[in-house]
Amino acid sequence: MMIHSVLVVNCSRDNDLLSVREFVWPIQRSLPVPSKAIPLRAFTEKSLQSFDAVILSGCQLLDNDYLKYVKKISWLKNSERPVLGVCAGQQLVSLVYGGKVLDMKQPCVGVHSIVVRKNRAFLDGSLSTLNVYGLHSHTITLPTGFASAAYSSLNPNEVIFHATRPVAGVSFHPEVLNKGLFPSFLTWAEDRLHSGK
Amino acid sequence: MRLACLFSGGKDSVYALHLAKYAGHEISCLVAMRPQNTESFLFHVPNIDWTKLQAESMGFPLLIVQTSGQKSQEMKDLKRVLSELKQKNKIEGVVTGAVFSTYQASRIQKICFELGLFCYNPLWQTSPASHWHELLVNGFEVILTSVAAQGLDNEWLGKKMDENAVHVLRSLEKKHGLSSIGEGGEFESFVVNAPLFAKKIYISNYHDEWKGLQGTRHILRAQLVDEHLRKKINPSQKASVKKIRVKPKKLVKKKRVKAKRAKHGRNSR
């Protein structure tokens, strides 16, 4: 199956012009295929029907409102659509699959380096480290069925991916640094859909 | 949400403010940092004092804060001011004009997080072409008040940006690798008119200063003028600008009537 369209879900508390411009448009501009954006509160199984994949966006550092929606989007666990969670989106992916969200002692803000593991999923095959832009005050535990593709001194789960499904999450913001991760994710997800694992 | 806007008077902060207002946020005040060090890492330097005219034209309170311009001190000063604004003005967040600078954005994000303030960056990661397009389509009148890059000569200093100028900047971007939105300090800008402005800024006197490739236009005299009156001003006759400051006759007449009524002990209503 080819991915022809992506639904970008705005995980910000307020789906206003400012949050859309800051957290959603940069993702949409990084995608090689058409996309549409909707707020998290409107994200339902039905809303995903006309799209081939979904990306859950990040949000403001102080905004924890998205954590209220975990039950509402628990259906995502049974969806066959590829899912990429970005920052807050990664936390939602973790929670939906049974992981936990933990507070960090200090927030992760700015550029830092991550180390890519051997099983790198959709991360660039030529790099052992990557500079990424972080903006979060929580980390996650690895949910059952997931593996970590990259770590840092701050976080063992900078990039996670499901063992068999086209589902992944990144703790940082590829729309700021590493925009190429979005097309890489889509290609990786397509391969998984083709191979059935 | 009640927001303070980190304000430099340049295109980015004025547009960020515009978007915040357009999105329905309440703007409590504008905060302009005035670094003593002209090589400030974080803040815009030229003509910062003239932000008072922009603030007046938009009807927002302006706070100009003196800072040393030294890396660590700049952040401390900004944090102190935002902390005071949170207590006194009850601001809940800050809006900035950060576009690509992770250095600038992350420092302000950290301060805001420590103070419990939201930090909005509505121009974040906007492409240079889209950024200029949005500004021009929305009627922003932007001039360059400093230039510091190969290809930006004295013709660019004070230049009012239009589609042609943006096109040339974009080609210089390809040729010399400069940022066409000035992200690397290639230029600084100043907004003389924008949708939120009740009156336009007319610059009647300035001084250009060059240090090697770096040119700065220091605004010496400027004032707010009504758009329709502005068109009548002959740029070669600076004296005629003063006439704009005279209050409209009808207003003066009404005030005289009020004073006369008051003198005679009558209700001035």
UniProtKB/TrEMBL annotation, chain A:
Domain of life assignment: Archaea
GO cellular component: cytosol
Gene3D superfamilies documented for this protein: 3.40.50.880
Entries under Pfam families matching the protein: GATase (PF00117)
Signal peptide: none
InterPro entries attached to this UniProt entry: ChyE-like, Class_I_gatase-like, GATASE
Limits of the Glutamine amidotransferase domain: 36-177
Entry-linked PROSITE patterns: GATASE_TYPE_1
Name of the molecule in the record: Glutamine amidotransferase domain-containing protein
Organism for this UniProt entry: Candidatus Iainarchaeum sp
TrEMBL record, chain B:
Sequence ranges of Basic residues compositional bias: 240-269
InterPro entries, A to Z: Diphthami_syn_dom (IPR002761), DPH6/MJ0570 (IPR030662), MJ0570_ATP-bd (IPR022427), Rossmann-like_a/b/a_fold (IPR014729)
Lineage: Archaea, Candidatus Iainarchaeota, Candidatus Iainarchaeia, Candidatus Iainarchaeales, Candidatus Iainarchaeaceae
Origin superkingdom: Archaea
Pfam families: Diphthami_syn_2
Swiss-Prot/TrEMBL keywords: Ligase
Domain Diphthamide synthase intervals: 1-223
Stretches for region Disordered: 236-269
Molecular functions per Gene Ontology: diphthine-ammonia ligase activity
Record's protein name: Diphthine--ammonia ligase
CDD domains linked: AANH_PF0828-like (cd01994)
One of the protein's GO biological processes: protein histidyl modification to diphthamide
Entry's EC annotation: 6.3.1.14
